[in-house]
Amino acid sequence: MMHKFSRRNFLAAGATLVAAEAVAQTSQGAVPEAPATGAAVPPPPSQGRPYNPVVTLNGWSLPFRMKDGVKEFHLVAEPVEREMADGMAARLWGYNGTSTGPTIEAVEGDRVRIFVTNRLPEHTSVHWHGLILPSGMDGVGGLSHKGIPSGKTFAYEFDLVKSGTFMYHPHADEMVQMAMGMMGLFIVHPRDPAFMPVDRDFAFLLAAYDIDPGSHVPRVMEMTDFNLWTWNSRIFPDIDPLVVAKGDRVRVRVGNLTMTNHPIHMHGYDFKVTCTDGGWVPPEAAWPEVSIDIPVGAMRAYEFDAVHEGDWAIHCHKSHHTMNAMGHDIPTFIGASKDRLSQMIRRQQPEYMPMGTAGMADMGEMSMELPSNTVPMMAGWGPHGPLEMGGMFSVVKVREGIAPDDYADPGWYENPPGTEALEWTGDLPDPVRQISARTVLTPRPQGS
Ligand SMILES: [Cu+2]
Q: From which residue to which does the signal peptide run (predicted)?
């Protein structure tokens, strides 16, 4: 289970890295120890070229070791259990104990050697999406090289000739292995730390699963009808907030390995698209947005100056993607009277409860008995009531005076007096409304 950001986890990650290095130094020539734990906020690198690490939401970065000038990593493809939210665990396939896998971070100009050990019941491979490398290192099983059989370790080795925002995933039984959660981020930092510098650099991957309430394993044959829309295999309300100090320059990097596009919308700001998995966007070509569509099999990074304090929603703008598993198949009853129908059903099933005649908002507050291992369709409480969200939703929390290495949740924003929408109890002139023969008012349920 991964934990929320905290200074304690940050320090613990440092200790883990030191321990991993100690193991590596005592086994020269061996494959480096594959770490299986980590934390959201990686420490700056203790060896190799300097860089400002990314913060992988609910994730971690894979430690490395330097061996004869080559940066060595060790990925282990294996079955994992992922807590997607409190009360819901999924049995997935991932890397080094987690799905999504750990983020690989290196620097432009580095030569990397990435050992991949296969602990899956079938062969796999790793494709390095967006990286420029020799054909034989491209990771397409059967095309670039032999698939990695169960129980074997392959070594990939190549130079990182460009910086940017990339990812990795299998290219062997791809539909199954990606539907099971096998993917990770690959960030190549610029050789010049003064190039496109930011104070906070967040990263996450979009992944979709179809896991029936009460079960644990994704239905891998599903093509379109997914019911869990995740960031790094987590769903709201258990996705980390993006904690930012007022005045920070912030980058958000998003990759999409689902079967559909996701328009990621952030409130409170306009921002500039600065990087894709094809490279950096020249500043004179960057255009402003408030929603950025992440196409399938693509990555986008955007940047903004965090000058507006507050709690700002960040979410996919496809409204079904901010809902969780339960309830997508419920028929629409808005405006219908279910009184007679309810009486008929209650004769067979006394506990039957009609839903949704005035909308679905009551689901956000309802505490109905759920099947095991699932979460409500709408969840999350804010300082002013239920948020009625799920899936691909989080909050950018911009506050004055947050320390540079502090990513702990600062709690809810308190609106300064006079800056919050409140009930109006004064007089109002009659509102203008358009009524014509073609305007039909929604019929009200009888008796209301
Ligand atoms: Cu979406």
A: 1-24
